[in-house]
Amino acid sequence: MSVLVPFAEVGFAESWWIQIIKAVVIFLVGFTLVPLALMLDRKLMGRMQMRYGPNRVGPYGALQPMADIGKLLFKQQFRPRTSVGFLFAFAPVISMICAAATFAIIPFGGTVDIFGTEVGLYGIDVSIGILFAFAFSGLSVYGLMLGGWASGSKYSFLGAMRSAAQLISYELAMGFSILGIVITAGTLSLTGIVEAQSGMWYIVPQFVGFCIYIVSAFAETGRPPFDLSEAEAELVGGYSTEYGGGRFATYYAAEYFHMVIASAIAVTMFLGGWQLPFVDPPTWVDPIVVLVKTVLVICVFVWARTTFPRPRYDQLMALGWKILLPLATANVIVTAIIVVVTD
Amino acid sequence: MAEVIFFIAAIGALAGAIGVVTLHNPFYSVLALVGHLISLAALFLLLRAEFLAAAQVIVYAGAVTVLYVFVVSYVGDGTVPLGRGGARLRVIAGLFIGMLFVELCIAMLGSGLKAIDGDGAPYVPGFGSPADIGEALLTKFQLPFQIASLLLLTATVGAVMLARRRDGGRALDDRPYVPGQYITPRSLFSGTLAEAVGRMRAPPEEPRQPAPVPAAAPAPRDGANPASGDDAGEEA
């Protein structure tokens, strides 16, 4: 029997139980990567700063994220008297939903034959592809804004406004940086884009796009050096100033989830997805290749965090609007001309 | 399944639309608008117009309405409810609503409601896909597409004219923006441990020339000053 998913033009209809299993597996993989990214962030940053990083909980400190999350979850929930109750509780959920939903389109491999059933190693392969990710990254702005506004605190509010402005500005550059790839590959579907990279990874012809994407991804995920909303000296803690306990843990995990997703999208769009150069490994290696590449890109995030100082806010805006956006536009135009000429 | 999703989305869209006009706190009004737009996107998905749904969420819910939220949360803090408007406004609003109602009636009844008994348009594979929409926009609807772009361009130029700073943007930061101002000249080993322990000193910077006195009095500022390594100067 075939169940038509209302919003997915799947290449073949997958039965409902496969879809449910896939949803659970993807959810689990996503939420396994988040503590891993958290751990990697702290450990690697420690090493880069010539210290050990967390090393008390578990072997090599590997259970530190569990301890952190456990501590946060068992803390008392409290909120300021001026806050707006339901929005205050709901805003972190928006952030988390948007992060988790985007993970559904990351392809970990092509279609494989598992016990005689064709299964695609991705959540859904939508025809709108990368636009799906942008739709949810557009909505995730609300998570920050509502959180900051509903806190009823000026620090939170200003931090939220800063983050939202930053996100909106860099979303444009991010979208344009990927447009070159869409033009070259001729498809929006992420699996299609990965398959189009079998000859050459898009990081080579689209190197400018890759640089723009990575810089925008730093800003979009609010990671250092673009963590202006959390500039302690000016804004205390940004939009999450008033949050504590499990709600703060949700925001915190969502931030790392966004980082994982930005890395995974970079892998899919620029670094060949599940493909390896010169070798053609068996199908079961594909998800491992994607995961390893994703972790490597996360290392770049950590590396940038330890390397660059935080820019001023006007510098951040100038970088986004006056350098990255014109550069990305020029990249799109040049790519389009080349594609038309060589076609 | 499709029916359930349709009714959820339709109820969401109607509730959102009603909420926009009835809620007194402008912030919640805008949030209701967001809910309305997202419900509309879900309805588009049911119609298999995936690209339209994505565009709806990205452009309207993700960009336009975020700016509304910006304005509303800065300006109206919810303590001041929206005024009920004067008598004249109410008359004008009533007139507009009446006109809109008549127009909709003409549009719907004018078709004779023939479609009620029909089965609706059949689903053609590829309909509503990005490629399909792109082709339609660039061939059949080329002229309306260009005119709509022109409209947006006009609005953009107008917004820039209204929002520009009258002093040419120098009020905030007296240095103008120079491309590449973040790239500061540094020595090869700057920032390394070798430099920190004093093994690789950065070459001492030559003393700065005093800025030449501008000849004309109203010249606003001297040369571009492309961020000449301030940090290196402090180390020396």
From TrEMBL, chain A:
Subcellular location(s) of the protein: Cell membrane; Membrane
GO MF, one annotated term: oxidoreductase activity, acting on NAD(P)H, quinone or similar compound as acceptor
Keywords, comma-separated and alphabetical: Cell membrane, Membrane, NAD, Quinone, Translocase, Transmembrane, Transmembrane helix, Ubiquinone
Transmembrane segments: 16-40, 84-106, 126-151, 172-194, 200-219, 256-276, 288-304, 316-341
InterPro entries: NADH_UbQ_OxRdtase_su1/FPO, NADH_UbQ_OxRdtase_su1_CS
GO BP of this protein: aerobic respiration
UniProt keyword Lipoprotein, yes or no: no
PROSITE patterns: COMPLEX1_ND1_2
Catalysed reaction equations from the record: a quinone + NADH + 5 H(+)(in) = a quinol + NAD(+) + 4 H(+)(out)
Mode of membrane association: Multi-pass membrane protein
GO cellular component: plasma membrane
E.C. numbers: 7.1.1.-
Pfam families cross-referenced by the UniProt entry: NADHdh
Chief location of this protein within or outside the cell: membrane
Domain of life the protein comes from: Bacteria
Function: NDH-1 shuttles electrons from NADH, via FMN and iron-sulfur (Fe-S) centers, to quinones in the respiratory chain. The immediate electron acceptor for the enzyme in this species is believed to be ubiquinone. Couples the redox reaction to proton translocation (for every two electrons transferred, four hydrogen ions are translocated across the cytoplasmic membrane), and thus conserves the redox energy in a proton gradient. This subunit may bind ubiquinone.
Oligomeric and partner information: NDH-1 is composed of 14 different subunits. Subunits NuoA, H, J, K, L, M, N constitute the membrane sector of the complex.
NCBIfam families the record matches: PRK06076.1-2 (NF004741)
Family: Belongs to the complex I subunit 1 family.
HAMAP family: NDH1_NuoH
Protein name: NADH-quinone oxidoreductase subunit H
Species whose genome carries this gene: Conexibacter arvalis
Source taxonomy: Bacteria, Bacillati, Actinomycetota, Thermoleophilia, Solirubrobacterales
TrEMBL record, chain B:
Membrane topology (UniProt): Multi-pass membrane protein
Ranges for region Disordered: 195-236
Keywords tagged on the record: Cell membrane, Membrane, NAD, Quinone, Transmembrane, Transmembrane helix, Ubiquinone
Low complexity compositional bias, start-end: 218-227
TM region(s), chain numbering: 6-23, 30-47, 53-75, 87-109, 143-163
Enzyme Commission code(s) on record: 7.1.1.-
Pfam families linked: Oxidored_q3
Organism superkingdom: Bacteria
Catalysed reaction equations from the record: a quinone + NADH + 5 H(+)(in) = a quinol + NAD(+) + 4 H(+)(out)
Subcellular location: Cell membrane
GO CC annotation, single: plasma membrane
UniProt-recorded Gene Ontology molecular function terms: NADH dehydrogenase (ubiquinone) activity; quinone binding
Enzyme class (EC, first level): translocase
InterPro entries: NADH_UbQ/plastoQ_OxRdtase_su6, Nuo/plastoQ_OxRdtase_6_NuoJ
Family to which the UniProt record says this protein belongs: Belongs to the complex I subunit 6 family.
Record's function text: NDH-1 shuttles electrons from NADH, via FMN and iron-sulfur (Fe-S) centers, to quinones in the respiratory chain. Couples the redox reaction to proton translocation (for every two electrons transferred, four hydrogen ions are translocated across the cytoplasmic membrane), and thus conserves the redox energy in a proton gradient.
Protein name: NADH-quinone oxidoreductase subunit J
Organism: Conexibacter arvalis
